[in-house]
C-alpha cells in the first residue's frame, strides 16, 4: 500500500497590511513604559562618548529612513502585499529597538540630566513612529490630505533633534537651567501684564458682555458667568500682589545666577553635583506657576501665603545646594546671601499682609 502523503505544514496567514500597521503601532506604544523606567545596561567596557553619539545619530537616521519608506509605500495604491508589509514592519521594529538599545548603553555615570535628555528624545521618536502608524492606518491612501497629515508627523522632527542633544552633563545642565529661566521669565511677564492692565482675565469680560443680550443678569451666576468680584482684585489683593511679583523676580534672578555659576565654574566630571543643582532648580518653575495661579481672582490670601512659602523653601534649598557645590568656589560669594535676604524680605511682607487669614 502506498504511503499516504505527508500532511503539508500549515502556513500562518498574515494579517492584511493595514492591520499589521495597527498592530505595530500598539507594539511600539508598549515599549514606551519600559524606556521611561529602564536602567542603563551594565557593562565592563569603558564608555566611549564618540562611539555612543555616532551610534545614536546613525540609529536616528535609520528610523527616519524607515519612516519615509513606509510612508511612501502606503501613500498610494496598490498597498504592499501582506508579505511586503511584514518586511517593512520588521525593519521599523528593528530600527526602533536599535534606537532604544543605544539609549540604554549610556551609563548613569555620564549624568542623570544627560540621560533624561537622551531618554526624552528617544521617547519622542518611538511615540512619533507610533503616531505615523496611526496616520497610515486611519487615513485612506486616496485622500489628498494624507500627505499633509504625514508631513507634520513628529517622528522626523524628533529624529532631527538628536544632533542637537548636549554632548555632556554640564551642557545638559545648562540646557535645562536655560529652559527653567525662560519658564519663570514667561510667568513673571504674564503676571506683570495682568497687573499693569488691572484685568487678570483680559478678554473674558468682553466675551461675557458680548453675550449679555442673550443672558439675563439673573442668569449670570447660575450659568457660571463670573461676577465682578471674581473678575477683579480688591485693594488688599493688589497690595499682596506686589511682594508676590517681587518673589517671582527673585526666583528668576536665582536661576540666572545659578546658570551663570554652572557655565563659568561647572566641571564636566562633577556629574552628581550638577544633577543635584538641576533637580532642585527644576522645582522652581512649577512652584512659581502655583504662586502665579493663586494670585488670580477670586484670590485666597491663605493659598497665596502657602504657595509663597513653598516657593521660598525651594529657592533657599537651590541656593544652599549651589553654595555647597563646586560651581561656587567662594562660598562667601555675596550674591547668594543677597538673594536669600531678598527672598526673606518678600516672604515677610507676604506674611504681614496675610496674617489676618491665620487669625480667622
UniProtKB/TrEMBL annotation:
<feature type="compositionally biased region" description="Acidic residues">
    <location>
        <begin position="207"/>
        <end position="222"/>
    </location>
</feature>
<feature type="region of interest" description="Disordered">
    <location>
        <begin position="205"/>
        <end position="225"/>
    </location>
</feature>
<keyword id="KW-0131">Cell cycle</keyword>
<keyword id="KW-0963">Cytoplasm</keyword>
<comment type="subunit">
    <text>Interacts with CCND1 and GRAP2. May also interact with COPS5, RPLP0, SIRT6, SYF2 and TCF3.</text>
</comment>
<dbReference type="InterPro" id="IPR049318">
    <property type="entry name" value="GCIP_C"/>
</dbReference>
<dbReference type="InterPro" id="IPR026907">
    <property type="entry name" value="GCIP-like"/>
</dbReference>
<keyword id="KW-0539">Nucleus</keyword>
<dbReference type="GO" id="GO:0005737">
    <property type="term" value="C:cytoplasm"/>
</dbReference>
<feature type="domain" description="Cyclin-D1-binding protein 1-like C-terminal">
    <location>
        <begin position="217"/>
        <end position="320"/>
    </location>
</feature>
<feature type="domain" description="Cyclin-D1-binding protein 1-like N-terminal">
    <location>
        <begin position="56"/>
        <end position="197"/>
    </location>
</feature>
<comment type="similarity">
    <text>Belongs to the CCNDBP1 family.</text>
</comment>
<dbReference type="GO" id="GO:0016604">
    <property type="term" value="C:nuclear body"/>
</dbReference>
<dbReference type="Pfam" id="PF13324">
    <property type="entry name" value="GCIP_N"/>
</dbReference>
<dbReference type="InterPro" id="IPR049317">
    <property type="entry name" value="GCIP-like_N"/>
</dbReference>
<dbReference type="Pfam" id="PF20936">
    <property type="entry name" value="GCIP_C"/>
</dbReference>
<protein>
    <recommendedName>
        <fullName>Cyclin-D1-binding protein 1</fullName>
    </recommendedName>
</protein>
Amino acid at each position: 500500500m502506498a504511503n499516504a502523503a505527508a500532511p503539508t505544514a500549515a502556513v500562518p496567514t498574515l494579517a492584511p497590511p493595514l492591520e499589521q500597521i495597527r498592530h505595530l503601532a500598539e507594539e511600539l506604544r508598549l515599549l514606551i513604559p519600559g524606556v521611561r523606567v529602564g536602567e542603563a545596561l551594565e557593562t565592563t567596557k569603558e564608555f566611549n562618548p564618540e562611539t555612543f553619539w555616532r551610534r545614536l545619530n546613525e540609529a536616528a537616521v535609520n528610523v527616519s529612513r524607515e519612516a519615509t519608506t513606509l510612508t511612501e509605500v502606503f501613500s498610494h495604491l496598490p498597498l504592499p502585499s501582506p508579505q511586503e508589509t511584514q518586511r517593512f514592519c520588521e525593519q521599523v521594529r528593528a530600527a526602533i529597538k536599535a534606537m532604544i538599545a543605544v539609549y540604554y548603553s549610556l551609563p548613569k555615570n555620564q549624568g542623570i540630566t544627560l540621560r533624561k535628555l537622551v531618554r526624552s528624545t528617544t521617547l519622542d521618536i518611538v511615540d512619533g513612529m507610533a503616531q505615523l502608524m496611526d496616520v497610515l492606518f486611519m487615513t485612506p491612501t486616496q485622500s489628498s490630505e494624507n500627505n499633509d497629515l504625514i508631513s507634520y508627523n513628529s517622528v522626523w522632527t524628533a529624529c532631527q533633534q538628536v544632533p542637537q542633544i548636549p554632548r555632556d552633563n554640564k551642557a545638559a545642565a545648562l540646557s535645562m537651567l536655560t529652559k527653567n529661566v525662560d519658564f519663570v521669565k514667561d510667568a513673571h511677564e504674564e503676571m506683570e501684564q495682568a497687573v499693569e492692565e488691572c484685568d487678570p482675565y483680559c478678554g473674558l469680560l468682553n466675551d461675557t458682555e458680548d453675550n449679555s443680550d442673550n443672558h439675563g443678569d439673573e442668569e449670570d451666576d447660575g450659568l457660571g458667568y463670573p461676577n465682578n468680584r471674581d473678575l477683579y482684585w480688591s485693594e488688599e489683593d493688589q497690595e499682596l500682589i506686589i511682594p508676590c511679583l517681587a518673589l517671582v523676580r527673585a526666583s528668576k534672578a536665582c536661576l540666572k545666577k545659578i546658570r551663570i555659576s554652572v557655565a563659568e565654574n561647572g566641571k564636566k566630571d562633577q556629574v552628581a553635583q550638577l544633577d543635584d543643582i538641576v533637580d532642585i532648580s527644576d522645582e522652581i518653575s512649577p512652584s512659581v506657576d502655583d504662586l502665579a495661579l493663586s494670585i488670580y481672582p477670586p484670590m485666597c490670601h491663605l493659598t497665596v501665603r502657602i504657595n509663597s512659602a513653598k516657593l521660598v523653601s525651594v529657592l533657599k534649598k537651590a541656593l544652599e545646594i549651589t553654595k555647597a557645590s563646586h560651581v561656587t568656589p567662594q562660598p562667601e560669594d555675596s550674591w547668594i546671601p543677597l538673594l536669600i535676604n531678598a527672598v526673606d524680605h518678600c516672604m515677610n511682607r507676604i506674611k504681614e499682609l496675610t496674617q489676618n487669614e491665620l487669625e480667622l
